[in-house]
Design brief:
With about 350 residues, this protein is mainly α. The protein has helices at about 25-45, 50-75, 85-100, 105-125, 130-150, 155-160, 180-200, 205-215, 215-220, 225-255, 265-275, 285-300, 305-320, 325-335; strands at about 165, 255.
Length: about 350
């Protein structure tokens, strides 16, 4: 029995025109990623230092959102306190650089490992919690973290309410870049590395197990998936990503203060996750751009009520793109391919 032709091969449904061979989907993705990489490398040379600084923070937020997406979007564990791990990563890097004399490039992986352990340990007791109860537990962690950092027992290391000042690193002498440009490319390298690792992790067996636990936990356990281990490890890996993002952000800002990691940061990360798109790797980039730039745009529109404008933007995004920006991009791409 002959196999029916695919939809893409039918006339009028994306078939190649005579003399114009269709570009394979894999090749289109490679070309798209190459163009995106060229654009990302060119931006620091056409923008001012402040805009480059903003893009550096956006890249750090993208790493944090990818980590949160692993936990919430792919595994279904709701976290309202990921700003706490962002703070742990930032302070770990700041303390290692200020008190231990460690180089900034070496402090970042250490900050990630510290957050990996902290997230895994927090995920163990959180296994008994589901849904809103887990959300409240993480919310409590996010609320408590600034007060913990201000405690007198840690004041020698954290600087208390005054925080820790970080010296902005200089680029290598053989690279003709400014400090902001160098930090941008340094953060971009970490972003590419962690997104590549996340893509490989989520597109393989581990990613399928996470989605199975999210959608059908009982069936996943019946099929031999160790749900407890996967949940705890997902919490740890998610925290690692967020901790690296916090360390990169602190180095870019040159400062780590408890008030910079209030519960509002955790809520902003959750907003960026939803706006960008749940269970979407590219959605982390869209959500990071929203977190970084939309509040500034709202402030420029109205100095008197910027958060009202921010709320209008947020409602508009959710109304027009209920599946996030990544969902809209997928829909547009699908319709263009089938024209």
């Amino acid at each position: 029995m002959d196999t029916p032709p695919s939809v893409s091969a039918m006339p009028g449904r994306g078939a190649a025109l005579p003399g114009r061979p269709a570009l394979p989907a894999a090749r289109r993705k490679v070309v798209g990623l190459a163009l995106l990489g060229i654009l990302a490398c060119a931006l620091p040379f056409v923008l001012g230092n402040y805009q480059v600084f903003q893009l550096t923070l956006a890249l750090a937020y993208a790493i944090a959102l990818l980590g949160l997406n692993m936990l919430t979007g792919y595994n279904g564990q709701i976290s309202l306190g990921h700003g706490a791990f962002f703070a742990i990563g930032a302070y770990t890097a700041a303390i290692l650089m200020e008190h231990a004399g460690l180089s900034y490039w070496a402090a970042i992986p250490v900050a990630g490992l510290v957050c990996l352990v902290a997230g895994f340990l927090f995920g163990l007791p959180a296994l008994r919690l589901e849904g809103l109860y887990l959300a409240l537990a993480t919310f409590a962690l996010g609320v408590a973290m600034p007060q913990i950092l201000k405690h007198k027992a840690l004041e020698h290391w954290t600087g208390g309410s005054m925080g820790v000042v970080i010296i902005k690193p200089d680029p290598p002498s053989w690279i003709p870049l400014s400090q902001d440009q160098w930090l941008y490319f340094f953060t971009l390298a970490w972003t590419v590395l962690l997104f590549w690792a996340g893509w490989n992790l989520l597109r393989g067996r581990v990613g399928r197990a996470l989605v199975a636990i999210r959608d059908q936990p009982i069936a996943a356990q019946a099929m031999g998936v160790n749900t407890a281990l996967y949940k705890s490890l997902t919490f740890g890996v998610s925290s690692l990503y967020t901790g690296v993002a916090g360390a990169l952000s602190a180095i870019a800002v040159q400062f780590a203060s408890p008030d910079s990691f209030s519960i509002f940061l955790s809520l902003s990360l959750l907003v960026g996750l939803v706006v960008g798109g749940l269970a979407s790797i590219s959605g982390a980039l869209y959500g990071a751009l929203f977190i970084q730039f939309v509040p500034n745009i709202a402030d420029q529109i109205s100095k008197a009520a910027p958060w009202a404008i921010y709320g209008v933007f947020l409602i508009g995004f959710m109304y027009l793109m209920p599946s996030g920006v990544a969902g809209l991009v997928r829909l547009v791409r699908h319709r263009l391919a089938n024209r």
